[in-house]
Amino acid sequence: MKAMSQIADRYAKMFYELALKEGRLETVHEAMTEIGGLIADLKEFRLFLRNPLLSFEEQGRILTAMFKGKIEDALFMFLLFIAYKRRLDVLKDIIESFDQLYLSGKGQLRALVKTALPLGDREKAFINQRLEDKFERQMITQWSLDPSLIGGFRIFVQGQIFDYSFKNQLNHYFYRSMQPA
Fold first, then answer.
1. pTM for the full model?
2. Nearest-CA neighbor of 135 among 155, 158, 106, 116?
3. Which CATH number belongs to the domain containing residue 11 in this structure?
4. Full domain range(s) for residue 15
5. H or E element that contains 65
């Protein structure tokens, strides 16, 4: 999996630099975000991206029907390029890596915070401020509820997990208590 991530990072960096150089970074990022949404929402599109039996010509016809004239030409050509290189299966990872580069260039960072109970605006602002202080970046925070945490919260940011949930604390207590003295 790490090798695929490195491949995705290389493709994303190459395309990010091209979009930046051509002054099309904003529109390319918007379109890539929409394509990422298609990947998340459409099972058929995910199956298409992972199908090793389709030839480059077949993939090209499908990509042309879906995207030609609807997205930036540079992005359309990039999609054809990664199809030619047989890397459509890592498109989701490429988009995620591109998004990280885009946000980093803007001094921003994404975080996902899962809480056991709904938080008020003050609590959200407090957590967000602590994240901004820790990472020295403006945070784009997505909030979600996860009652299985019992209490507390779990933060996902930059591939790291910060777990301040009661569930995690109970699990640690349980495992420590099971260790021989």
1. 0.82
2. 158
3. 1.10.520.20
4. 2-104
5. helix 56-67
